[in-house]
Predict the structure of UPF0344 protein AHA02nite_14520.
Amino acid sequence: MDHQQMALIHIFSWSAAIILFVIAYVMIKQNKQEKPIKILQMTLRLFYVLVIATGADLFFRFYFGVQSEYFAESIIKLIAGVWVIAAMEMTLAKAKKGKKEFAGWLQLAFALVIALALGFGRLPFGFLP
Ligand code: HEM
């Protein structure tokens, strides 16, 4: 599999994760049944694995053990990506318990902006820039 295909699966995976996250969140807020929400969350976690696996693949291909002027940014991108996932988990957990979600949303927005800006805006492999 070439790196463009891997980047495409990476993009597909985090897009799917974001969509599933929003659906799960809305269902939690609407007090839907426990079971469908559980199933949705399990599916969401499956996509986390895909996001991390494809992200790790891209990282090992292009940055690990390679002299690159983008090495530092690739590490920040990696951390931001994992952070997005952590923030999604945290936000859903708080919503489920009826606790304050603000910190979760704030982290999600912050980490997502960094991941998108570095992924599409800075780092040279994949599709953009
Ligand atoms: C929901 C979380 C994530 C989002 C929103 C995200 C977003 C992106 C975007 C927009 C790109 C650029 C794709 C392209 O230009 O074609 C990208 C590439 C990449 N991502 Fe992620 N990512 C996430 C999670 C991760 C994780 C967890 C890792 C590491 C384990 C990771 C590592 C990478 C690497 C190494 C690249 C290639 C960078 C390059 O273009 O040179 N990402 N990601």
